[in-house]
Amino acid sequence: xxxxxxxxxxxxxxxxxxxxxxxxxxxxxxxxxxxxxxxxxxxxxxxxxxxxxxxxxxxxxxxxxxxxxxxxxxxxxxxxxxxxxxxxxxxxxxxxxxxxxxxxxxxxxxxxxxxxxxxxxxxxxxxxxxxxxxxxxxxxxxxxxxxxxxx
Length: 151
Ligand SMILES: [Zn+2]
Fold this sequence. Notes:
Blueprint: H1 4-16, E1 26-30, E2 36-41, H2 44-47, H3 54-66, E3 76-81, H4 85-93, E4 98-103, E5 128-130, H5 135-149
Parallel strand pairs: 3-4, 4-5
Antiparallel strand pairs: 1-2, 1-3
């Protein structure tokens, strides 16, 4: 069985495949047995799509191969950065079982930093969450990008 660190390492490799113009965030979806269903990198610049966050793209692709329609029951999503409100909402809608993420995002994070969208007790589906996995490696990827792109 893959460790959470293994899952984040896969997400880091997905991030590394991002278009050089895009903030390198990567997401990977695994099924309950640990099989990789889909991976994606943030592609907002590459696609001109404001919703093309890594998590959204990976969830869409995973649902195509998971075999339970739009429901990603039993799935785990690993992402290098704490999800925003849109992606946190999408995780709940997709019925993802678990979320593992790397770096915290104090400016926009919606899984504990600014909001906690996925664990709101009013929701009937609440994914389990573990944040801060390989946090420094994930943060370093972003720091490098912003140092070279937005000095
Ligand atoms: Zn997002």
